[in-house]
Each structure stands twice: as structure tokens, then as C-alpha cells.
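Input record, target 12 of the design panel.
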């Protein structure tokens, strides 16, 4: 790791890297924190396991805030357990979930939002449910009380953000498992390499695999209590891209949609997200090199593990699409998924898809900082296989 960090530093210092630096900001902010829904027991477990890396003087206010929320969350979770424990225990998860795969910043959110319009076919986790996974069955009706913990737009791209929009299930599992998730670098980036086994779990301990699996299935059972089992679960978390083998073991009848995008644009967007979003949850202060190494290595892991496991997916249960297809013809691209998977599509669903596609026609994407020649060369070298695999020009 030390050699890799040194090599990355040397590469990035070849040219002006002002656009690839991540100066600290919002270190005292209490909004948009991915640990807001953690319970006290899980918080204590996380502090015991990872607390040695906390910068207490810098993040003391954030630590107090999380501890206070964790205490409240625990009390409400106990109430929820009293009323819902039997229903959760007996819930039967629909065995045909649909997983949206792809690296962060490839268009997974747009695809998730569009498919979630079909509420006859799919159920999905919302921002509130993943943010407060231990209490949402009780607290969802009072969610307006928690409105101040998130912004009304996503920090990295100005897309609307509310407690009702579709959201990544891994955020819930991260909280429920006390940090057994590759999302934890957003809290402890300086410990990032130690979270890498949690992508595919191939090299994780049996205990960590069991913790993640139990947390994941528990959350899906809670969604089943909330929505019933007749609709299929629509699940989107980019880290699932590395877990095809594991997900097929859990759900042999699952279907998968994989979306890809020009790697240069993905890198630019990932850099923007790291700069504008990650600082809301850190409990340590990483260097720019560490953040960049996370961006690069995460892409490597997701791509390599997906390509290695892709052949395990039975014929007809995977569809790959490009972001350019989705951006250019959103409704037709999504309707193509219905045709491929032979999903029933009502006229009302098609109308909603086309109306949504029309509503986002004027959405202005971020203007990303141009990549320096050194950064461009770095991406071309590190992500060379993905350029070749999906036909992009390095």
C-alpha cells in the first residue's frame, strides 16, 4: 500500500493537479452523514473496531451528533422491535429481485429512478428507509421531523434529494452491520484498504460475511413487511457490481442490469463527488492521494470482479446498457429492458416513463474540471481494460 501510494503521488505530480486535489471542508457539518441512522450498539461496535483512527479534536461535534442520534435511534428501534419483530421474522422475500449494477457515476441513479416509476412491478428502498433502517417501520410517518439531516439536492450533481426518492440499499446495510461495507471509507478513508474485502467478500472473514448477509437479508425482510412480497425488489448499490457470485447464491432467480459509461467521464464525476460529498461523513482527514487511490482502486475492483463473474449469470438474466443510450433515449432504453426480460408493461407505466424522460430533458449536468494530461494518462493506464471491453477510446 505504501509503495502504491508513493507511485500514485509521483504520477499526479507530473503535471498541475489542482483539479485533482481535495481540500478539507464542511468538517463541522452535521448534514448528509451516512451514519445518521446507526443505533447505539452498532455505533459502539464501530468505535471499538475503528475508533483508533478518529481525529477527535477535528470531528468532536460530529461524534456527539452521531452518538445522540444513535441513542434516539436505539430507543425507537426497541419500540419497532416490540411491534414488528414477528412480522419481520416471518417475512418471505420475493426471490426474483432486480439488481442495477455499475460503477458510481455511470447512470445507475437515473436508471433506478426510471424503473422505480413502475410501482406495479417493483418495490424499492427510499432515502429515509436506508438512512434509518432500524426505525423506518415506525418513523416513516414522522419523517418530516428529520428533514434537516439531508439537503434538498445531492451535493455532487444537484439532482433532487428527499426522503422519498429511491436510494442505495447498501447504505442501510452499512449501518445495520456496524460498518461491514465498502461504504465505510466515506467515514474512515485513511483505513480504506482494510474495507476492500467487503466488495465481493471472497477474501473477507466468515464472521464479516455472515454479518453482512444477515444485515442485508434483514433489511430486505423489512422492505417486504413495508411493501409486501408480490412486487419484485429493485435494488441499486454500485458495490453490488463486485458481488454477482454472492448475490446469485442468495437469489438464484435474480436479474441484472449493468450500465457503463466513458471511463474518463466517470473519473471526472467521481472526483467531483469525492470533493463535494465525502467530507460530510469523514471522521478522519485523508490526503488527496488516499482519496484518489480509493477512486481508482474501487473502479478496478468493481470492473474486475464483474467481468470475472459475469458468465455465472444464466442466459437472458443480464442486460448491459451504456449511459449514452440511456441519456439519449431514456424511455426507449428502459422499455428495451422490459422487452429483454419479458416484464409486463402497462400503458400507464409506459406513459410515466415517457413523461419522466420529457421532464429531465433540460437537466443540466455538472461542468467537470478538465483532466490534466497526467491524470488522463493515469486513467487510461489503470482502467485500460474497461476502455477495451466497452469500446471507449483511451
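The sequence produced for target 12 reads:
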Amino acid at each position: 500500500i505504501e509503495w502504491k501510494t508513493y507511485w500514485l503521488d509521483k504520477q499526479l505530480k507530473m503535471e498541475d493537479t489542482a483539479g485533482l486535489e481535495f481540500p478539507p471542508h464542511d468538517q463541522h457539518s452535521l448534514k448528509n452523514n451516512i451514519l445518521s441512522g446507526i443505533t447505539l450498539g452498532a455505533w459502539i461496535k464501530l468505535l471499538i473496531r475503528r475508533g483508533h483512527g478518529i481525529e477527535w479534536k477535528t470531528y468532536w461535534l460530529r461524534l456527539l451528533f452521531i452518538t445522540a442520534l444513535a441513542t434516539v435511534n436505539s430507543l425507537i428501534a426497541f419500540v419497532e422491535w416490540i411491534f414488528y419483530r414477528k412480522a419481520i421474522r416471518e417475512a418471505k422475500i420475493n426471490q426474483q429481485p432486480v439488481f442495477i449494477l455499475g460503477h458510481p457515476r455511470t447512470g445507475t441513479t437515473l436508471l433506478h429512478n426510471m424503473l422505480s416509476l413502475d410501482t406495479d412491478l417493483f418495490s424499492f428502498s427510499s432515502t429515509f428507509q436506508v438512512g434509518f433502517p432500524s426505525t423506518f417501520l415506525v418513523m416513516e410517518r414522522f419523517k418530516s421531523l428529520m428533514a434537516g439531516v439531508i439537503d434538498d439536492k445531492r451535493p455532487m450533481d444537484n439532482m433532487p434529494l428527499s426522503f422519498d426518492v429511491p436510494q442505495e440499499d447498501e447504505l442501510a446495510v452499512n449501518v445495520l452491520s456496524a460498518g461491514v461495507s465498502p461504504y465505510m471509507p466515506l467515514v474512515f478513508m485513511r483505513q480504506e484498504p482494510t474495507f476492500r474485502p467487503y466488495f465481493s467478500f471472497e477474501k473477507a472473514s466468515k464472521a464479516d460475511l455472515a454479518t453482512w448477509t444477515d444485515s442485508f437479508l434483514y433489511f430486505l425482510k423489512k422492505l417486504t413487511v413495508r411493501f409486501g412480497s408480490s412486487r419484485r425488489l429493485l435494488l441499486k448499490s454500485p458495490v453490488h457490481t463486485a458481488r454477482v457470485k454472492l448475490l446469485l447464491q442468495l437469489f438464484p432467480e435474480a436479474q441484472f442490469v449493468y450500465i457503463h459509461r466513458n471511463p474518463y467521464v466517470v473519473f471526472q464525476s467521481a472526483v467531483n463527488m469525492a470533493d463535494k460529498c465525502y467530507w460530510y461523513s469523514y471522521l478522519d482527514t485523508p490526503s488527496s492521494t488516499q482519496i484518489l487511490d480509493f477512486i481508482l482502486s474501487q473502479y478496478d475492483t468493481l470492473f474486475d470482479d464483474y467481468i470475472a463473474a459475469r458468465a455465472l449469470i444464466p442466459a437472458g438474466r443480464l442486460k448491459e446498457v451504456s449511459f449514452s443510450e440511456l441519456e439519449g433515449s431514456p424511455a426507449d432504453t428502459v422499455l428495451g429492458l422490459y422487452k429483454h426480460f419479458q416484464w409486463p408493461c402497462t400503458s400507464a407505466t409506459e406513459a410515466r416513463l415517457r413523461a419522466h424522460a420529457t421532464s429531465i430533458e433540460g437537466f443540466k449536468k455538472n461542468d467537470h474540471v478538465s483532466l490534466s494530461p497526467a491524470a488522463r494518462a493515469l486513467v487510461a493506464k489503470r482502467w485500460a481494460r474497461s476502455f477495451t471491453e466497452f469500446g471507449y477510446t483511451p
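Confidence is low (pLDDT under 50) at residues 1-18.
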